[in-house]
Amino acid sequence: MSSPRSRPLPTLAEHETALRQALGDVAEHSFFAFVCALDQAAFDDLAARLPVDPGTPEGGGWLVSVVRFDGGFAGSLEVAMPVALAHTLLSSFLGLPPEAPAPETLLRDTVGEFTNQVCGAWLTRACGGRHFDLAAPRVERAPAAPLAAGGGAAEILATVDDLPVRIRLHVEAEPA
Amino acid sequence: MLNLLIVDDSAVMRAMLRRVAEVCGAPVGRIHEAANGAEALRVLERYPVDVLFTDINMPGMSGPDLLREIDRRGGFQHVTRVIISTDGSAARRDEVRDLNVRLYVEKPLRPETMRDVLTTLTAASDPR
Question: CATH: 3.40.1280.10, 3.30.565.10, 3.30.70.100, 3.40.1550.10. Which one for A26-51+62-173?
């Protein structure tokens, strides 16, 4: 007799593959940005060489956004990117010149919307037709990208328009 | 001229949709914005709206709850409803099928998609 589960749960590697596809779709279609995969050493090197903006407000030059999700899966998706990339994405998204001013609230909103879209694109693929709920993104400044995840979290490193991005997926509950 | 109401908790998403609506060439009148369903209801009670674009997941009142409330209150049958959401699941599409949703647009979306939606709705509203 077969199991009621129609297919085995995705492995960490499969989650990472689906996340890469979701990131590519969102970056290209919504933000007109180009994505390239990175390994840890290249990510660290690129992050270390980011120019320090003298106008960086207290709290740091990175923005870290977390979206919690519930439905077929439950957990959270975290996206960390330099503020410079948030500015680039905002300009692309709204069709503004790169030198246009970018208020902090809009920068945070851009990273939150980016995270929301990547999470939704991944869940639409991963949930097997089930609907899901996304909480409003929580976005904070950080002095640097969060450290690499330990075991149990899917993680991808990439460049988006030549700037580093770290995406981390914590799955707390899987479909029954 | 179509009067629009854009409902999304993301300010940049609302700004993007507004920008496309303004430059796409469709006959668009006033463009209103709301950050959730409760704000959208206040706009609907106060201003004439022809097309409602709404996200699904929003704090306060979600998109589906907004559409249910519109039906409960009555008087908004003429408002064309368009969902714009990251949730492209079959279950979610089924959920809103009974809420008189004209179009379901999945994010990520290109600006051309929004332009095509407006063009389609404009053609549908043209009495000729």
Answer: 3.40.1550.10
